[in-house]
């Protein structure tokens, strides 16, 4: 589907987990129709709570040291 996120028209992609043991029920990602970038999303957890996120900006090709990625 589609909806407005802030001032941007966005496509909405719904994602559901393959395994029912995951801690969430579904995720909707809002993707800007013009730029193709993710501009926000909503996550529903198993208890029915809803968490909405908006992305205010990107820093492409940011210099991040390898030490930030610890497994």
Describe the protein.
The chain has 71 residues and is mainly β. It has strands at 2-5, 8-15, 24-32, 38-45, 50-54. Strands 1-2-3-4-5 form a 5-stranded antiparallel β-sheet, with no helix packed on it. The mean pLDDT is 90.
- Beta-strand percentage range: over 45%
Low-confidence stretches: none
Q: Mean pLDDT across all residues, rounded?
A: 90
Strand order of the largest sheet: 1-2-3-4-5
| Biggest sheet architecture | 5 strands, antiparallel
| Secondary structure: number of strands | 5
- Provide the helix percentage: under 10%
Shape, principal axes of CA atoms? flat
Radius of gyration, in angstroms, nearest whole number: 15 Å
User: Which class of secondary structure composition applies to the elements?
Assistant: mainly beta
* Count of alpha and pi helical runs: 0
Kindly, what is the distance between the CA atoms of the first and last residues, rounded to a whole number of angstroms?
Answer: 36 Å
| Order of secondary-structure elements | EEEEE
Task: Summarize this structure briefly.
The chain has a five-stranded antiparallel β-sheet with strand order 1-2-3-4-5, with no helix packed on it. It has 71 residues and is mostly beta strands. The chain contains no helices and five strands.
Give the arrangement of secondary structure elements.
Elements: E1 2-5, E2 8-15, E3 24-32, E4 38-45, E5 50-54
Antiparallel strand pairs: 1-2, 2-3, 3-4, 4-5
């Amino acid at each position: 589907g589609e909806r407005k996120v802030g001032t941007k028209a966005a496509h909405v992609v719904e994602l559901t987990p393959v395994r029912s043991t995951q801690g969430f029920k579904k995720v909707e990602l809002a993707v800007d129709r013009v730029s193709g970038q993710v501009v926000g999303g909503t996550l529903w957890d198993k208890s029915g709570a809803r968490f909405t996120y908006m992305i205010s900006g990107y820093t492409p090709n940011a210099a991040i040291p390898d030490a930030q990625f610890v497994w």
